[in-house]
Amino acid sequence: MSDATPDTASSKTIGQSSKLLVDVGPAAIFMITYNVAKRLAEDQAIYWATGIFMLATAAAVVYAVITQKRFPPMLAVTFVIVTLFGGMTIYLQDPIFIFIKPTIINLIFCFAILFSFALGFNVWKRLFGSIYSMPEHAWVMLGIRWALFFAFLALLNEVMWRHIVDADLPETMRWFAGLELTEGFWVNFRFFGTFPLFFLFVLANVPMTLKYAKAADEDGDSEAEQQDA
Q1: What is the C-alpha separation between 212 and 145, in angstroms, rounded?
Q2: Contact predicate 39/87, CB 8 Å
Q3: Alpha-carbon torsion, ordered 174, 179, 182, 185, to 10 deg
Q4: What is the pLDDT of residues 135-147, one digit of tens each?
Q5: What does the pLDDT look like over 146-188, one tens digit per residue?
Q6: Alpha carbon of residue 135 to chain centroid
Q7: Computed over its alpha carbons, how large is the radius of gyration of the chain?
Q8: 140 near 96, Cβ under 8 Å?
Q9: What is the rounded distance in angstroms from the CA atom of residue 204 to the CA atom of residue 197?
Q10: Whose CA is closest to 166, among 181, 178, 176?
Q11: Which of 9, 36, 112, 191 has its CA 20 to 30 A from that of 154?
């Protein structure tokens, strides 16, 4: 029988929901704002969405710090990049800066993981080691997988934004002559494409995580038994 009371379970559910809102909310607001603004001010939709996105990301960071008592590092990095590139997008009236924002963010995450290995520690373990325990080599494997995944997302974004046909982009930026995408497709993919890819990638890593987390627990139990003997 679970020791959790209904109030405790309810509080935990609300807490997880609020964390999800903080992580996903700004991207959803960006998409919604763009689609609404596209009907009202077609040529300015990307700039309206970018401005609201900047405010939503800042609000998410403040909300996490004040109400959840946590400072989400990945969201903080996103906030800095969104503010910088979003500001340039609006000031210069050039959407290319918001287009390349996902590329920059994903490459930062990728290089942060790989660079941490060069410094002798695993930043991925530092971020998530408090959630579950695994052997060191398993953390390395998981970190490398995530680094490669972030690199894939960066490359995917580069392919996509370079082939937006209804944005004022130089023809020399395009890589594939037959590929044509719309600005609206790129915006909506940030939510309906990227988050499902994250979900599928997490699911793909569940078997390895469960395998090594279980092995770590067993090792811990064995060491405890030896110490008690």
Answers
A1: 15
A2: no
A3: -120
A4: 888 888 989 999 9
A5: 999 999 999 999 999 999 998 878 888 889 988 999 999 999 9
A6: 25
A7: 21
A8: no
A9: 10
A10: 181
A11: 36
In sequence order, what DSSP letters do the residues of 167-193 get, joined into one string? S---GGG-S-TT--B-HHHHHHHHHHT
Contacts 24+ apart (CB under 8 A), 111-117: 111/147, 113/143, 113/144, 113/146, 113/147, 113/150, 114/144, 114/147, 116/143, 117/143
String of b and e for 31-49 (b: at least 16 CB within 10 Å)? bebbeebbeeeeeebbbbb
Q: Give the span between the Cα atoms of 111 and 113, in whole angstroms.
A: 5
Hey, how many other C-beta atoms are within 10 angstroms of the C-beta on 193? 15
* pTM of the shown model: 0.80
- CA distances to 37, 97, 102, 118 from 43, rounded to whole Å, are 9, 16, 22, 46
The structure tokens listed for 8 are 């405790």
Q: Quick one: which of 103, 63, 57 has its CA closest to 82?
A: 57
Note whether 47 and 94 are within 8 A (CB).
Answer: no
